[in-house]
Design brief:
286 residues; alpha/beta; Metallo-beta-lactamase, Chain A; seven-stranded mixed beta sheet
């Protein structure tokens, strides 16, 4: 069932439709700004040396620090977009310190877990369901995309995961920006429906890292990352979720080498923690 999230109108009429930005905090944590919206994704604010619990008694140590701490989040965050309920995407620091009134768009499984932690303003979705977010004159449609966190039957042992397609609109006729976030998924057959339904994607944010537990691949490695760049055919693909935990076995350098070998360097942008990617919207869409 599609749902609608109504946000307070922006304080100023000067909403920038010409450009936006993506600030990379670390892991899969981003602050996306465009058309008056400020969106926090997969909040993870543990520090280097901290351990995250991944279930079944398995833990992993963080190797990096986030670019900012949770206390430094800007006050204008509108909502959280959470791909799934795992400790490296919604950690114990976030459970303790995140504003519980902040809306969270996520999976049904995560919404249930979040409710147990006192987060009740959730907007759960199944694959292909939509949440419409309205803020003043602009609207954002979030559609849950398919994803699998493990091959075959093993996926049942891990939290359900969703990717997200974000479509920013000034009216029903004009899509200003289409941004896709893969979530922690492997490349598998159901992903082929995404470019069929969305033949033009402006920006794709790829959860990589080649996460392995007990020798099983759980997120895209460099080889699958190249497959994803080709499959989604976005104007720009940006790798995230690639170097932060010990279970991440495929560093960004492997992906960079694979992209260079495939001759796709002009289709990819790279961010380090604390970097901001800025983008422009073509004049004929505004």
């Amino acid at each position: 069932m599609d749902r609608t999230l109504e946000l307070s109108p922006p304080r100023t009429d000067d909403v920038d439709l010409e450009s936006g930005s993506i600030f990379f905090v670390g892991t899969a944590t981003l602050i996306v700004r465009y058309a008056g919206f400020a969106i926090l994704t997969d909040p993870n604010f543990l520090h280097s040396g901290d351990h995250v619990h991944l279930g079944y008694g398995i833990t992993s140590k963080r190797r990096t620090d986030p670019a900012i701490d949770i206390e430094e989040l800007p006050p204008d965050i509108d909502f959280v977009l959470l791909s799934h309920y795992h400790g490296d995407h919604f950690d114990r620091v976030v459970e303790e310190k995140l504003d519980r009134s902040l809306p969270i768009v996520t999976t049904h499984h995560a919404a249930g877990e979040l409710a147990d932690e006192g987060f009740h303003e959730t907007y759960p979705m199944d694959t292909w369901e939509k949440t419409r977010v309205r803020k003043g004159e602009t609207e954002l449609t979030i559609t849950a995309m398919p994803g699998t966190h493990a091959p075959g039957i093993l996926s049942k042992a891990l939290p359900p995961v969703m990717g997200s397609m974000l479509e920013f609109r000034a009216d029903e006729e004009r899509t200003l920006l289409r941004l896709y976030i893969t979530g922690d998924t492997l490349v598998y057959d159901k992903l082929k429906a995404i470019p069929e339904r969305y033949p033009h994607i402006d920006i794709a944010l790829l959860h990589l890292g080649g996460t392995k537990i007990l020798g099983i691949l759980l997120t895209m490695d460099a080889e699958q990352g190249v497959e994803a760049v080709k499959l989604f055919d976005a104007d720009t693909s940006i790798p995230i979720h690639y170097n932060d935990y010990e279970v991440f076995r495929s560093p960004r350098a492997d992906f960079e080498d694979a992209i260079a070998e495939a001759g796709l360097e002009d289709r990819v942008a790279y961010l380090d923690h604390g970097d901001t990617y800025t983008f422009e919207i073509p004049a004929n869409r505004r």
